[in-house]
Amino acid sequence: MKILFAAALALATMTGAVWAKTEKAIVAGGCFWCVESDFESVKGVKSVVSGYTGGSLKNPTYNNHEGHFEAVEITFDNAVISYDQILHLFLRSVDVTDAGGQFCDRGNAYKTAIFASNAAQKASAKTAVAEAEAALGKKVVTPVKSASTFWQAEDYHQNYYKSSDIVITRAGPKSKKNAYKYYRNACGRDARVKQVWGADAAFAH
After folding, report:
1. Which CATH number characterizes residue 54's domain?
2. Phi, psi for 170 (deg, rounded to 5)
3. Is 146 within the bounds of a domain?
4. What's this model's pTM, rounded to 2 decimal places?
5. What is the number of other CB atoms lying within 10 angstroms of the CB of residue 170?
6. Residue 144 covered by a domain
7. Position 90 in a domain
8. Active site positions, annotated
9. Domain interval for residue 121
10. Which of 168, 113, 99 is nearest to 143 (CA)?
11. How would you write the pLDDT of the chain (205 residues) with one tens digit per residue?
């Protein structure tokens, strides 16, 4: 009995250690397809989910997420990559000087933001913003907000960049080969990030 108890305790300790390595970061950086695509390539990131957050509307959808930001929830192994490193990459992958949206996508839903889940994340986020301001020598308009409910977006938005041949436009869906690449290039995301951040631009193709 003592041996079984010791084994169970050891397993629980090991399991707890594994779970302790997993952390989540929630950020909004314009179109969630692009942020998902960027961070799924990062070593130590286990998953990236597109969704909506920051608003009061319950069960938001792509057609009705008024008040919410398009955002992603990044689950990562903090033994491989830290929350600070995630934020460093994030801030250098967007136009942190644009308060009206991101690139070709305008309006509240496409503004940048960091959603902190606890006091430690909030402190890290404020430091990251201050460091970005110092690096640019310009005001960073990306706010640090307290995390609220993260609503997962519809299935067709998840991993959109990998396989979709449909560009979802405000005029309706349109068929297009390599739809994601077409959208990203047409929106001018990488060009603008390079313009803002120069050699420090993250993920810019």
Report:
1. 3.30.1060.10
2. -70, -15
3. yes
4. 0.84
5. 5
6. yes
7. yes
8. 31
9. 21-161
10. 113
11. 444 434 444 444 444 444 458 999 999 999 999 999 999 999 999 999 999 999 999 999 999 999 999 999 999 999 999 999 999 999 999 999 999 999 999 999 999 999 999 999 999 999 999 999 999 999 999 999 999 999 999 888 888 787 666 665 544 555 556 778 888 998 999 999 999 999 999 998 7
